[in-house]
Each structure stands twice: as structure tokens, then as C-alpha cells.
Specification:
It is a single chain. The chain is an alpha/beta fold. It folds into 2 domains: 359 residues, 3-Layer(bba) Sandwich (FAD/NAD(P)-binding domain); 54 residues, no CATH class. It has 11 helices and 22 strands. Strands 5, 6, 7, 14, 15, 16, 17, 18, 19 and 20 form a 10-stranded mixed sheet that branches. A hairpin with a 5-residue loop joins strand 16 and strand 17. Helix 1 packs parallel to helix 6, helix 1 packs parallel to helix 11 and helix 3 crosses helix 11. The radius of gyration is 21 Å and the shape is globular.
Length: 448
């Protein structure tokens, strides 16, 4: 089993030739892009998926592996509740074991104020039917026995799941290929070919493909691609460090966090650990442009953000990253095939120490792998899921704000039906692109 997030060290698995034409092209080989391609193909669409580096090499293999309904924005929750059975169906169809287990997600309250926040969220989604519930102190201690700290309570959702992301998304890509999706790794999208206000093709480093529908699911790179075409979204990215431990005795079968450390049981017998409440942010040109939109969320969560003066060369919002290029020249997407940020050892050491303090019976915890990922985010902490008004034929699914792995199949199904004109089944008004230009104040979703 692969024990690390995927990257350029991973051999190209999908190397089909770029066809001259297709009904639709999906840009981005993460969980949202792969899921979209699967559901487009199942609706009879001739679809090509292109990925500048490797399938799942960025955040789709670097996330914590939580598949959670818990803590979702009320508008996002119905799509996530749909995603749960889709995960089960896709896992069965793939025929591969990627650790999909229904073991629950739990948020541990460190004080009565946090517990009240959990109760407020639960009240906001009480009509959804989700099985989340509040635990008291005794129930919390019974659910996760052996914790060294006494907590006043918790929020838990028993039907939430976990999986190994660097196994799951490549398995879904293989399923997509078997079902007829043309997948091309190491092939960057350079620019849309727009004629008379609508998509007529896509320029890639392998040439032009004639296509009338393009779905952009480019994660942290989406804003850079869109800006080239005059479409602006206030998308930024934050760095999150995570680690995998060597096998340990089981202290909890699911996933949980107390904000100081987040932990999730792995199928190899270890735990994935991460900082539960903070992240690092590299300041770049887009950060200054988007600052007014982020003021509401910054007021509430500024202490959770560690600012860095500039991003490393080649990052989507680095000071030297080009914002314009010709269709026939190398782009930033080719210069950085995989966004592979350096993990922060100090952050890692801190959350490992917190885990050891929480479960002293484990002794010294040995770490076998450390990595980092760039989480694409938007100022209201919910994604863009919409078709553009200015460029006909362009559909956007981006800004998953750290929620993308779990909800990926649900968003993919929605995007596929958006492209094909089928019934969506959900209210998507919260995810409209024009919310950033309407003049309305941002309404941040729950940062749970």
C-alpha cells in the first residue's frame, strides 16, 4: 500500500492520446474532477479528463481522509448526505479496498462555549435527518476511552466515514477509465478557445481539443486559470501539515478532533494526525485583491492563521507567477506539475505531542511520514458550483475549503447533471459565482 501522498515520483498511469474532439473536458484529476468525469460518462457523454501532473497528487491525496456530514454548511449538507451512498457504490464498483469504513466523526468540546457552538450547528440542520448528536461528558469519555483530559461533551455523527485518500481517488480514476473516460496525466490545460462568447475548444500542452463543455475542477489552481479569461474569484490557499504514525493500539476507530490535534484511524493500524485548528497562509497578489471579501472570516478566525510573507516560487499566488500567457507557450501549470509544499516540522512536532498527551498510554508516538497540502478556500467557506454567465459552456467546481474529499462524489454528480441539463436536486444558490460581485457581505459558513 502506498503510504505517502502521491506526487511526481508516481509513474504516469493514464497516458491516452489527446483526441481531436470530445463532448466535454474535465480539468483536474482530484476527487471532484474524477467523480464529475464518472457521472458525465454514465450519462452518455464522451468525456476527457486532463491532469497537469498526476491523478490525486495534490490535496486529494493530502487530506485527512474524513468523509463527514458533521459541521457542514446547511446548504452543503444535502450534497454531502448524497455523497455517502455514492462513496459506497463507487467503492463497490471499483473492486478495490481503499479503507472505506463507517466509524464516525467526533468534535470534542474543550469548554462549554465550544459545546454551545456545536449545539447551534445541530439546531441549524435539525430538519436534514442527519444522525449527529450531542454527547455529555460521560458519553464522550465512553466513546473515546483513555483520554487524559476530561471534556464537557462532544458532537458526533456515527454514520460519517473514513478512507485512505491516496488509495481512493486513484481507484476511482481506474474505475472511470474502465467505464470509458479518457484520462490524460501530465497534460496541462493552457487556455479556453472562446468563440462568440462560448467554449469552442481547449488548448492544452498536447494540442487543441474541440469541445463545447469544460468543467474546471482545478483546486488551488482554478483562480489562476480563470483570471486568464477575465473571470475573478477570491480564491486563496492555506498550507496544512499532516503526518502518519506507525501502527498503534486502537484508541478510537473513527476520526476526532479537539482543535489541538485531529486524528483518524488508518487501515494500516496507524493514525493520520494534523493540527485541528490552525493553518499557514502565504501572502501574494491575490491576497491583497481579495482582502475585503475575507474581512468577516478574518475577524472570527485571525488567531488561527499564521501569516507568511511570500509563497515559494511557482505557487499559484506567488509574486512571480505569471497571470497571462499565450496558448502556445509554457504556463505556470506546466512549470509546477504538482503543488508539493514543504511540511512544517514545528507544527508536526506540536500536534504529535498533543496526541501523546491526550493518550499517554501510547508512549512515544513514532511518525513514519509527514506531508503538507495547499487547501483552496473562499471567503464564505463554501465552494463555487456554477456555470459561468460570461463564458457559455464553462462550469466551475472549486474552492472546496477543505471539504472536498468527502463531498467529492456528490459534487461530481451535481456538476455532471449541471452540464447535461438534468435535474440537480439541490438548492445551489449559496454556491453561485456571482455572489462575489453582487455587493452582498460575505456570510461565512461554520468553521467546524
Amino acid at each position: 500500500m502506498i503510504q505517502f501522498p502521491l506526487g511526481l515520483h508516481t509513474p504516469v498511469e493514464h497516458s491516452a492520446a489527446l483526441p481531436q474532439s470530445a463532448d466535454a473536458v474535465v480539468i483536474g484529476g482530484g476527487v471532484v474532477g474524477v467523480s464529475t468525469a464518472i457521472y458525465l460518462r454514465r450519462r452518455g457523454v464522451n468525456v476527457v479528463l486532463i491532469e497537469k501532473g498526476r491523478v490525486a497528487a495534490e490535496q486529494s491525496s493530502r487530506n485527512w481522509g474524513w468523509i463527514r456530514q458533521q459541521g457542514r454548511d446547511p446548504a452543503e449538507l444535502p450534497i454531502m448526505m448524497e455523497a455517502r451512498p455514492l462513496w459506497k457504490e463507487l467503492a463497490a464498483a471499483s473492486g478495490e479496498d481503499f479503507g472505506l469504513v463507517e466509524a464516525g466523526v467526533t468534535y470534542i468540546a474543550r469548554n462549554e462555549g465550544e459545546l454551545a457552538g456545536f449545539e447551534k450547528w445541530l439546531d441549524s440542520v435539525k430538519s436534514s435527518g442527519v444522525d449527529s448528536r450531542i454527547l455529555d461528558a460521560k458519553e464522550t469519555a465512553a466513546l473515546i476511552p483513555g483520554m487524559s483530559t476530561h471534556y464537557p461533551g462532544a458532537l458526533t455523527t456515527p454514520t460519517d466515514m473514513r478512507a485512505e485518500p491516496w488509495l481512493a481517488v486513484p481507484a476511482l480514476a481506474r474505475l472511470a477509465a474502465r467505464e470509458g473516460v479518457t484520462i490524460i496525466e501530465n497534460c496541462a490545460a493552457r487556455a479556453l478557445d472562446i468563440q462568440s462568447g462560448r467554449v469552442a475548444g481547449l488548448f492544452t500542452e498536447a494540442g487543441r481539443i474541440a469541445v463545447s463543455e469544460v468543467v474546471l475542477a482545478g483546486g488551488a489552481w482554478s483562480s489562476l486559470f480563470l483570471r486568464r479569461h477575465g473571470v475573478t474569484i477570491p480564491q486563496l490557499s492555506v498550507l496544512a501539515t499532516a503526518a502518519a504514525t506507525e501502527p498503534l493500539p486502537e484508541v478510537h476507530a473513527g476520526a476526532a478532533t479537539n482543535e489541538e490535534v485531529s486524528f483518524r484511524r488508518r487501515m494500516d493500524g496507524g493514525y493520520t494526525l494534523a493540527d485541528g485548528g490552525s493553518h499557514d497562509f502565504f501572502i501574494g497578489p491575490d491576497a491583497f485583491r481579495a482582502l475585503p471579501k475575507y474581512i468577516p472570516v478574518l475577524k472570527e478566525h485571525m488567531t488561527d492563521t499564521r501569516l507568511k510573507p511570500w509563497a515559494p516560487s511557482g505557487y499559484p499566488d506567488a509574486w512571480g507567477t505569471p497571470r497571462k500567457w499565450r496558448e502556445d507557450e509554457e504556463t505556470p501549470f506546466e512549470r509546477m506539475r504538482v503543488l508539493d509544499p514543504k511540511p512544517l516540522a514545528k507544527t508536526r512536532d506540536n500536534f504529535v505531542s498533543q496526541f501523546e498527551k491526550l493518550f499517554p498510554q501510547l508512549g512515544q508516538v513514532k511518525v513514519k511520514a509527514t506531508w503538507a497540502g495547499m487547501i483552496d478556500t473562499l471567503p464564505d467557506v463554501v465552494p463555487v458550483i456554477d456555470r459561468t454567465a460570461t463564458i457559455k459552456g464553462l462550469t466551475i467546481g472549486t474552492g472546496m475549503c477543505g471539504h472536498g474529499f468527502g463531498i467529492g462524489p456528490g459534487v461530481g454528480r451535481v456538476l455532471a447533471d449541471m452540464v447535461t441539463g438534468n435535474t440537480i436536486g439541490h438548492d445551489l444558490s449559496r454556491f453561485r459565482l456571482d455572489r462575489f460581485s453582487s455587493g452582498k457581505a460575505m456570510d461565512p459558513g461554520p468553521a467546524l
